[in-house]
Amino acid sequence: MAKLFLSAFLLLLLSLAKVAGAAAPTAPVRLGYSALTFTVLPVLYGQEAGVFQQNGIDLKLQQIRGDLAIPAMLNNEMDYAIGVLPTVWAAAEGMPIRQIAGGQIKPAFSLIAQPEVNSYADLKGKLVGVSRLRSLASNLLTVILKKHGLAPNDVRMISLQTTNNVYLTLDTKQITAGMLSVPLDIKAKLAGFKMLASAADYTSAYQGGIATTTKKIAEMPEVTERLLTAYVQSLRGLKANREPAIDLIVKHFKIDRPLAAASYEQIAPLFQETPIIPTDVIETELRTWTELTGKKPTVSAEQTMDMAPLQRVLKRLAQK
Fold first, then answer.
1. 178: left (phi over 0), alpha (psi -120 to 50) or beta
2. What does the pLDDT read at residue 20?
3. Are 140 and 203 in contact (CB under 8 A)?
4. Cα-flanking dihedrals φ and ψ of residue 148, to 5°?
5. Distance (Å, rounded) from C-alpha 307 to C-alpha 14?
6. Is the peptide bond before 278 cis (omega within 30 degrees of 0)?
7. Does residue 21 sit in helix, strand or coil?
8. What's the confidence (pLDDT) of residue 292?
9. Residue 212 pairs with which residues in a beta bridge?
């Protein structure tokens, strides 16, 4: 009897081992981001809700300066990165970097000015702050100025390193205007500053999304697709679950609930549920890159991206 019991017990253990072996092991993934902005919100949502863990991804978020994310990925110090513009420009230079998912379909930036500014002419010769030169913020500022008859050199564009610094220097009247993202633009408007323009009314520009190296796509296809599955589910969860998303904003951005709710209402519609990047948006980014550098891209807009893993993910999710 004891032998029969032992045999049955061993068979049970063997069965459990087979089941455990059939499950894919959790994969550690290092995902970089340049700053705590709303472009990171879907990833934060998915991490808090356990979406990445459910898809076998042990996600490690790493804050890294935007210009260092590309070399970090190329040197295998980081696996993936959030941010479209730096990766598209890197691909244009011929680097083996590809965008594998989009994020926001419109830029969540506003041009905010001192209360006494009455027209764009009032900005001539004045200091206008951006986080960095040759960044999305500075590109959007250029677009807005051109639409109102001003050239970029008509203002004194100044790099302040972070969007938070732009807000602080605006608040202390060291600059006349600045490009602010959500929620700082909403905070500035509530404080009495003047919104001259919402960038979303002027142009399409991607923010957020996920990029990686061609080597990572080729050598880790399963991990890449598990990451993208969790990312898509997180995007959709963020858009579908307002109250938990607002709770998340309050927690991570350290703002009160009314401001968090206003930020959610502004930002949530900008995220895609199906984050395929339209080619024409990338073509616009490449034209901007050419204007700034005087160079021609070494690849086409389509070649800066690899949407095949995401397409497979979306097909599987549609079948569930």
1. beta
2. 39
3. yes
4. -110, 25
5. 40
6. no
7. helix
8. 78
9. 98
Cα–Cα distance for residue pair 67/204, rounded to 1 Å: 23
pLDDT at res. 203: 84
The length of the chain is: 320
The candidate with the shortest Cα–Cα distance to 53, out of 25, 18, 80, is 25
How much of the chain is in helix, strand and coil states, percent to nearest 5?
Answer: 55, 15, 30
Average pLDDT, rounded, for the chain: 89
If phi over 0 gives left and psi between -120 and 50 gives alpha, with beta otherwise, what is residue 19? alpha
Same fold, 26-106+206-319 and 109-201: yes
Structure tokens at 306: 């690899």
For the domain 26-106+206-319, what is the CATH code? 3.40.190.10
pLDDT tens-digit readout, 236-267: 999 999 999 999 999 999 999 999 999 999 89
Query: How far is C-alpha 256 from the geometric centre of its chain's CA atoms?
Result: 23
pLDDT at residue 24 in the model: 59
Kindly list the domain boundaries of the chain, sorted by start residue.
26-106+206-319, 109-201
What is the CATH number that goes with domain 109-201?
3.40.190.10
Q: CA–CA separation, 274 vs 232, rounded Å? A: 7
The pTM assigned to this predicted structure is 0.81
